[in-house]
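Hi L.,

As promised, LysM protein:
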Amino acid sequence: MDKSDTFKLANSQANFTKNHFLAWDKEYTHLKWGGPAPVRDIQAYLLPGSTVLDAGSGNGRYLGELSRHYSAVGIDISLTALNGSRAQLARSGRFAEHLGASISDLPFKGQVFDGILCYGVLQHLFIKERESAVKEFSYILRKGGFFFFEAFGYKDMRCGGEASIPFEEKTFARQNGIIYHYFTIEEVRALFKGFGILTLEDVIKEKVFKGNVYRRHLIKGVFRKT
């Protein structure tokens, strides 16, 4: 491979990395509101009135419920998602701050949040982006603050497909331009090595249909900044 080929490959990889963020705005033009999602797991750790960030808040399924109990802020890379979230919260008579930003580069001062919720988001980043995001989370979370994590696990029936560009283990590209990474418990431990681990578990559900086993695999955890 000569220098021009190397440059073309690097440029292609950079464009793909940028596009996997931009793809979310298109995705949210047709994603339907799925109703509010419970936040009981968060309530078990955080006192009412705490400051909470929904990192990758999407169309506000968790953010709306968080705003009932906490001083809540939602960030997302998709402005379309944020607009939908604002409208949904307004219809419910609730309020939360909405900001457009990447979780790998957060627009907050240090130690301003008591808790951070990040459900189904880190699975859509490349490894360097995930590492940057966790560093950002550690910076904005107060000492003793809680981080609530959920992402796809590698035993999930959807783990597979076209390899991502750049290539990373257990990371795949979908036709919509969004990437999917499927975690192992060991990866999650390594990613959050700077936090105290309160809970970390595999959540596996299986259904049998016409003799075939269909498995859904999530990894869930609660971490604390020490």
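The two ends are 47 Å apart (CA to CA).

Thanks again for sending the construct details.

K.
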